[in-house]
Design brief:
The structure is a homodimer. Chain A is of the alpha/beta class and about 400 residues long. Chain A has two domains: about 140 residues, FAD/NAD(P)-binding domain (3-Layer(bba) Sandwich); about 210 residues, FAD/NAD(P)-binding domain (3-Layer(bba) Sandwich). Helix content of chain A is about 30%, strand content about 25%. Chain A has ten helices and 27 strands. The N and C termini of chain A lie far apart (about 60 Å). Chains A and B meet through α5 of A and α5 of B.
Chain lengths: ~400, ~400
Amino acid sequence: MKKPNIVILGAGYGGMMTAVKLQKNIGVNDANVTLVNKHSYHYQTTWLHENAAGTLHHDRTRIPIKDVIDTSKIKLIQDTVLEIKPSEKRVLLEDGEVTYDYLVISLGFEAATFGIQGLKEHAFTIGSINSARLIRQHIEYNFAKYNTEPDKKPERLNIVVGGAGFTGIEFVGELANRVPDLCREYDIPRDQVRIICVEAAPTALPGFDPQLVEYAMNSLEARGVEFKLSAMIKEVTENKLVFEKDDQREEIGTNTVVWAAGVRGNSIVEESGFEANRGRIPVREDLRPEGYDDVFIVGDCALVMNEEAERPYPPTAQIAIQEAEHTAGNLERLIKGERHLEPFVADLKGTVASLGDSDAIGVVFDDKKLYGWSATAMKKVIDNRYLLKLGGIGLVLKKGKLNFFHF
Amino acid sequence: MKKPNIVILGAGYGGMMTAVKLQKNIGVNDANVTLVNKHSYHYQTTWLHENAAGTLHHDRTRIPIKDVIDTSKIKLIQDTVLEIKPSEKRVLLEDGEVTYDYLVISLGFEAATFGIQGLKEHAFTIGSINSARLIRQHIEYNFAKYNTEPDKKPERLNIVVGGAGFTGIEFVGELANRVPDLCREYDIPRDQVRIICVEAAPTALPGFDPQLVEYAMNSLEARGVEFKLSAMIKEVTENKLVFEKDDQREEIGTNTVVWAAGVRGNSIVEESGFEANRGRIPVREDLRPEGYDDVFIVGDCALVMNEEAERPYPPTAQIAIQEAEHTAGNLERLIKGERHLEPFVADLKGTVASLGDSDAIGVVFDDKKLYGWSATAMKKVIDNRYLLKLGGIGLVLKKGKLNFFHF
């Protein structure tokens, strides 16, 4: 009997965790497992905002895939996915193709720009090591230019973040900590720099406990962050952002808009013919899309209903990791010839949003609220737990966040 | 009797050394001394190419003026000189004015662009902390962008230096050492980056001993520097440089052109009515321009004839420092009522050009040639000797180049 080919597309949280679980639990005689990824490294998407702000080096955020994956057990292909052809069980890559018996699609997210004029062209998004590094350098470049121009341009020093959701808040928290260092480096008075967070909802962190939201806003405002709430972004150009608030049109001169207000699944999946709902593919309770019994979708590309809350689970790392572990288990069942797959049920452990290196807010377990040091510590525990799962204690020591007592 | 007002314009090598000597040798009852400078800091122009390449932080290169100047003896004015009115003994500043009895003009250099098309708009020059820092960031920004664009643009990774004279050679030496680090930081293969030095003369370092020139070119070429000799730059645009060589027109795609092939005196001096020769003011043997007995010009703005060689002294830090020390002595004579001023005679000690942190070439004393480690060590000795003169051993320990055994 021919060994089945399992192909995993993407080495983000979902793809990596699927591969690591398969590597641990199935033998090389049971299946051929192939992991396809654009880069030679995996990165922790939830740390990228720190790389973008310049508060953490991106080499802390990324991990060479070979440090975790045993290439005598799993075949690595470094290539870019162009299209999936599910009817032919093939995946077209930039430099070749792979065929599969079982496919795991874990291709992550891309920015959802909701058709806002100029956003795609002129705003940055925090989506990869490359894009985070570019944001860091873009900000520095504008700071470096500021003092070389006879007519000082405030737009070089105004950093606008679109969205006060989870990512937007975490990013402005890092920026608030980074800006004083940038001011020293480039001889710029702190009061000439603005960090402005523009949010369409009437509150920051919509959905979070109001008491924690207030704590977060106070912490950030004390460090100079300005909030524009109930403000709809209308247009972004090379040197300004236009928004509407209380039926008034306002403009902010800025060369730096970072869009952190919406993600959708990787458009390759939709373009490959899978039926999508706002870029995410609705899946059955075993994470397979309707009509495709040989395809699993995990992470940000999957639309998984939380039956209890009557809405989809949010696209978080926590869920992606759980989906991956679950899918690895179901793949084991399939290659052993079992027909019954287990349904996925998420185990929501809580959420912690950092507000820079030494402050955070969060809700864990049964609505227990955390803020300040305890939330910061919890955030680091969560991050380290992932590294432990992925690569053991060695990886935690190498890449983990171990400075619990840093203030 | 009214105390005379001595005003020094510019706190570069010439202005600082004049001020330090006066501070040491004349009493507060003898004269009022005022030092006017754009920034609150002095910087070592001869180290700026390292800041621009990113191999040395600019805070090593600059020194707060107040660390060296005793403000109970010398008045500091942080302001920008707009115009000198010698007939009225006044200097107009951006935020005020000063009047003088004796004026020392030490306003440094600016780039001479020889009318090359687009050079002024699109090329960088290494002239100040601000401009050096911008070059560093400009290069990094282009490296950061390279991997984020689907169509890779080689012009982001081509760095062109105009001029293989002293500054050009020292700068490419630093770049050659810096580029491997930049490649690691931005995930770019080293062989995709080009450092190209374009020189109009048929040799690098025209005027230097041919044996040393060969040593320098070998050292730099071994680290990947390309030379285009006998090549006249014709035009610079945002993304290319055009030059002519052997009657052929050639283009290099590049976003980064650094012009290091010519300097002239600060144009404020010429615009204030002093008669200039290519931007430098011819002075008498006591460093006063013809017709102005109350004005001394030191450093790059002064055109001082080397009678022996029958040509002007080059605009170097060494000469500026000697002119400054000499002028401080003549000012002492004037305020003591002496009419006879001493003529300036330069004491040429030699020249050392660094080729990066661990290689150099030079000629010292009576045509003794140096290269490699001994030249590197000599270069550091020269730099430290200046700091010693300026601010004593404390300043040498704080800002000096003490890593003699770094390879």
